[in-house]
Amino acid sequence: MTMDAGHSDPSPPPSLAARLGGWARARRRLPRRAGHDAPEAAGRRWVTPVLAGLIVAGPLATLAGATLLANAAERETTRLDATLAPRRITEQRRAAVHGMLSAAMLRPGPTALLDRVAAALPADAALVRAERSADGALVLEVSVSDPDALRSALRRVPALAGLRDVRQHEGEGRTLVLLRQVAP
Fold this sequence. Notes:
Number of helices: 4
Oligomer: single chain
Strand order of the largest sheet: 1-2-4-3
């Protein structure tokens, strides 16, 4: 079906607001019917501000409600943080202890460590003291006649290569060398 060029209307239909405005203007122009008591036009002036106030009240009520809810959530979060603080501290301590025990389990035991040290020491060296401190550092005290031969022998063993000379002193014809290795 085709439309004639003369019947087409190039302008779009009026909007809803335009139609409502036209309806209101037409209603004001109508004559009043007898017996129909309508308030005067001056008495209807309150309608527009009330409608505008209602339109503005919606977003303001939403904003006020959101602010109240956010404050309540913040108070609840603060209360829960205070309640759970001792538990978090306990969990942090437990994690620290777990880390220390894990590191201790990965290190070789005392027998394996002493076997490696005994195999690496020169023939004239004697192990005087061996200990692992609380922070996991290995401390060895070795009595030897040549400290340089001791250091080079220990560097050949990869597990003992991290030992560093901390102190040495002469005594009874031999040298006491204190070696320390930081825990891995």
